[in-house]
Design brief:
This protein is mostly beta strands and 365 residues long. It contains four helices and 18 strands.
Length: 365
C-alpha cells in the first residue's frame, strides 16, 4: 500500500494564526476584547435565610402575624470593568499627561468586563400581616414591612467609583432598599339583593342595589436609594462622587420640595448656601457614600366596582368599572440627574400616570 494519499473533492482550508493579531497589538492599536472574564473563585455564591414569627387566630376568620425575616449573602457576582488603570496611576494620568490606554495593566488590550465573586449583602425586616379569609362577602389582606437592606453591589449599573479596587468603600444601602412598605387589599360583596343578607326578598330593591362588589388595593412605600455623583475630575475612576461638606445632610434633600418653573426641586441646588457637597479633586475619591440619598416614595389607590346581572341560568353579564390611581395623586419620578455637575441636578421633570378609568362588560356562559 502506497504512503501517498490522493485528496479527491476536498478543498484545503487556511487557518489563521490566532496569535498574529496579538503579536501586532500595541498601546496605540490595542487588541479589542469582547469576552467577559470570570474570576476563578472556589467559593460559590451563598445565601443564608432565617426568620421567626408568631401567629394568632382572631374572631371573624381573621389571622394576625408578626415575623422577623432576615438573610445574608456572600460571594455574590459583581460586574466590574477590567484592565482599567489603577488608582495609583491617577497622578500620571491627570497631571502627567499619560494616556488611559498606556496606564492600563495590560496596555495591548482594551478594557473589558469581568465578574468577581466578592459581593455581600444583608437584609433585616419586621413584617406584619392581618388577613381575613373570605367570609360573609368580605376579605381583607394587609401587610406592612419595616426593613433595611445593605450590600456592596446591587447590580452592574451601580455608581461605583473604582470597582476594580477598594470594593469595601461601596458598602451602603442596597439599590432595592425600601424601609417602609404598606399594602391593603380587600374584596367586599355588598350585602344587598338576591342571595345576600339584606333586601333579598324585595325584587325592586334587589334590581337597584343587588349584585355589587367593591374591590380595592392601597399601596404606599418609601422611594428607592439614590447616589449623588459628579463629572469625573479623576479620569481613572468609573464614576466619581463628591466630598461631604455637611455631614448632617448626606442625602442632599431639600426640606420642602418646591417648583422651579415646570420642574420640581428635590435636591438642594448647587448654588444654595446650604448645599452639603463639594466637588472632589482629580487625584482622589469622593468621600460621599453610595446610595445616601433617596428618590420620592409613592402612594397609590386602585379601586374597582363589579355588578353581576343574572340573565338566565346559563348567562351572566358583569359590568366592570375600574380606576387606577383613583385619588389622582402625583407620584413623582426620580430626579432627572443626580450629578452635581449637571444643570438639571436634583430636578424632577416626570411622574407616574395620572388617574385612569376604564369600563367593561363581561359575558359568562
Amino acid at each position: 500500500m502506497s504512503g501517498r494519499h490522493n485528496h479527491i473533492g476536498l478543498g484545503l482550508q487556511t487557518l489563521t494564526d490566532p496569535f498574529a493579531e496579538l503579536a501586532q497589538a500595541s498601546a496605540r492599536q490595542p487588541l479589542t476584547v469582547s469576552a467577559v472574564s470570570y474570576a476563578n473563585s472556589a467559593d460559590l455564591p451563598r445565601l443564608t435565610q432565617w426568620n421567626i414569627g408568631v401567629q394568632r387566630n382572631l374572631p371573624f376568620n381573621t389571622v394576625v402575624e408578626a415575623a422577623y425575616v432576615a438573610s445574608r449573602s456572600a460571594h455574590q457576582p459583581r460586574g466590574i470593568p477590567a484592565n482599567n488603570p489603577r488608582f495609583e496611576s491617577a497622578e500620571a494620568v491627570n497631571l502627567g499627561g499619560v494616556r488611559i490606554q498606556d496606564a492600563r495593566p495590560f496596555p495591548v488590550y482594551t478594557g473589558f468586563n469581568a465578574v468577581q465573586y466578592d459581593g455581600t449583602g444583608d437584609y433585616h425586616s419586621m413584617q406584619f400581616n392581618v388577613t381575613r379569609r373570605f367570609s360573609t362577602g368580605f376579605s381583607l389582606d394587609t401587610s406592612f414591612t419595616f426593613s433595611k437592606s445593605t450590600d456592596t453591589a446591587s447590580g452592574f449599573g451601580d455608581s461605583f467609583q473604582i470597582p476594580w479596587q477598594f470594593p469595601e468603600i461601596e458598602h451602603g444601602l442596597s439599590s432595592l432598599d425600601r424601609p417602609r412598605s404598606l399594602t391593603i387589599g380587600w374584596v367586599w360583596e355588598l350585602p344587598f339583593g338576591k342571595g345576600r343578607r339584606y333586601l333579598n326578598g324585595n325584587r325592586f330593591a334587589s334590581a337597584i342595589l343587588g349584585g355589587f362588589q367593591l374591590n380595592g388595593i392601597f399601596s404606599a412605600a418609601d422611594g428607592l436609594p439614590l447616589t449623588v455623583t459628579q463629572q469625573n475630575a479623576n479620569l481613572v475612576l468609573q464614576t466619581q462622587r463628591p466630598n461631604v461638606r455637611n455631614p448632617a445632610n448626606l442625602s442632599g434633600k431639600i426640606d420642602e420640595p418646591r417648583f422651579e418653573g415646570p420642574a420640581r426641586r428635590w435636591l438642594i441646588a448647587t448654588t444654595d448656601p446650604s448645599f452639603p457637597f463639594e466637588p472632589s479633586g482629580n487625584l482622589g475619591l469622593g468621600n460621599l457614600g453610595r446610595n445616601t440619598s433617596r428618590e420620592p416614595g409613592f402612594v397609590n389607590f386602585n379601586i374597582s366596582t363589579f355588578r353581576n346581572f343574572d340573565i338566565s341560568e346559563r348567562f351572566r353579564l358583569q359590568f366592570r368599572a375600574e380606576a387606577y390611581n383613583a385619588l389622582n395623586r402625583v407620584n413623582y419620578s426620580q430626579p432627572s440627574s443626580a450629578s452635581i455637575s449637571a444643570a438639571n441636578y436634583g430636578l424632577i421633570t416626570g411622574a407616574a400616570p395620572a388617574r385612569q378609568v376604564q369600563l367593561g362588560l363581561r359575558l359568562s356562559f
